[in-house]
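fyi for ur records
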Amino acid sequence: MSRLTVFVVEDSATIRQNLVATLEEMAPVEVVGYADDADGAIAHLARDPPPCDLAIVDVLLRRGSGVDVLKALRTCEHPPKCVVLTNYASTFIREHCLALGADRVFDKSGEVERLLEYCETLARQRQ
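which gave:
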């Protein structure tokens, strides 16, 4: 199975390091970069062609938000797939992120396994 290239947008270094380790150990994923704020994420992800297959974006960031990232990616001609991974996965946040173009929304506290399954599915589809 080919590896899925992933860009992580997460402001907590501890969470980011744990997420990267989990993704690369448990799923066919290669993390190719990260940003800890919205501007850095947008500058990297808005390239054409996109620098990755999938962006994993947190809602609350040090500067800006994951919502800002989703809005910016809507204007790209060829954006990467994008999922939101957040501690604030309320119904409102889920619906809002999906309406802004997120492919999925996962809760950090209980849906990481579902995120791994999603990554495996995307990697299989790339073959």
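Strands lie at 4-9, 29-35, 54-57, 81-86, 104-107. thats all i got for now
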